[in-house]
């Protein structure tokens, strides 16, 4: 009866050890399976990397021939740029010169514009004076009293006593006819004074103004249409 408890104690210990052994075996099995899984994944990744490296190696080998000449091509480009650089350096200075020239041209054209405006107004005044002179000359040529310049040769011939079938010589006591009127010379003198007045007060001042405008224009263009005496 006393041997029975000892057997039970031995059986309990064996059962306990057996359980712990099973637990450790299971744990080791799980660890091994996990490690094997990781190793399989790592192996596949390494195989893929190896394939990619093989592809990259073939690409590098194919590009090797072109890469060898790349330094020469870079040197050629640098040489071309070195030739272009001296040609590009003067461009900023030339651009400044062009801007200065255009500025000068702009100021000269501004002066020319003002001179041309002045000349335009002067020419308009001259045109009005010329139109007035034109009307005066038309009146002087053939006025209503027939004492204009159109038949002046006949009047001069009559005054000088030229012979004609109708009238005798003035030196011989003949008559100068229709032209020997007391106001003939007075009318001619008045016409001459009118013409002289229009010329002095209209033509001469406007001509002088034109010369002054052309002198202002000459400062810009160097071209003048008037003499030094104007």
Describe, in short, the structure shown.
The chain has 230 residues and is mainly alpha-helical. Helix content is 80%, strand content 0%. It has helices at 3-88, 91-141, 152-159, 184-221.
Could you explain how this protein is built, in words?
- The protein has 230 residues and is mainly alpha-helical.
- It has 2 domains: 1-55; 108-221.
- Helices cover 80% and strands 0% of the residues.
- It has 4 helices and no strands.
- It starts with a helix and ends in a 9-residue tail after the last helix.
Spatial extent as radius of gyration: 63 Å
Ranges where pLDDT stays below 50 over 5 or more residues in a row are 162-174
Which bin fits the share of residues in helices?
over 70%
Tally of DSSP β-strands: 0
Q: What general outline do the C-alpha atoms trace?
A: rod-shaped
Helix count, DSSP H or I runs of 4 or more residues: 4
- Fraction of residues in β-strands: under 5%
- Quickly count the domains: 2
How would you classify the helix and strand content by structural class?
A: mainly alpha
* Terminus-to-terminus distance: 167 Å
Residue-averaged pLDDT, rounded? 72
Tell me about the largest β-sheet.
none
SSE string: HHHH
Fill in the keyword field for this structure.
rod-shaped, 4 helices, 230 residues, mainly alpha
């Amino acid at each position: 009866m006393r041997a029975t408890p000892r057997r039970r104690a031995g059986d309990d210990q064996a059962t306990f050890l057996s359980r712990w052994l099973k637990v450790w075996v299971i744990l080791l099995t799980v660890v091994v399976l996990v490690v094997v899984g990781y190793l399989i994944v790592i192996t596949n990744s390494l195989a893929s990397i190896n394939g990619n490296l093989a592809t990259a190696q073939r690409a590098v080998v194919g590009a090797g021939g072109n890469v060898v000449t790349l330094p020469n091509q870079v040197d050629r480009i640098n040489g071309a740029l070195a030739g272009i650089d001296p040609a590009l350096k003067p461009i900023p200075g030339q651009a400044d010169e062009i801007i200065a020239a255009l500025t000068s041209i702009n100021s000269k054209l501004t002066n020319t514009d003002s001179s041309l405006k002045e000349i335009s107004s002067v020419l308009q005044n001259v045109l009005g004076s010329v139109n007035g002179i034109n009307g005066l000359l038309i009146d002087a040529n053939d006025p209503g009293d027939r004492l204009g310049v159109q038949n002046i040769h006949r009047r001069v011939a009559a005054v000088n006593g030229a012979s004609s079938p109708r009238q005798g010589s003035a030196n011989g006591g003949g008559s100068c006819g229709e032209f020997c009127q007391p106001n003939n010379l007075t009318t001619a003198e008045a016409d001459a004074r009118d013409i002289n007045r229009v010329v002095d007060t209209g033509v001469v001042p406007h001509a002088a103004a034109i010369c002054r405008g052309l002198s202002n224009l000459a400062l810009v263009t160097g071209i003048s249409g008037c003499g030094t005496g104007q």
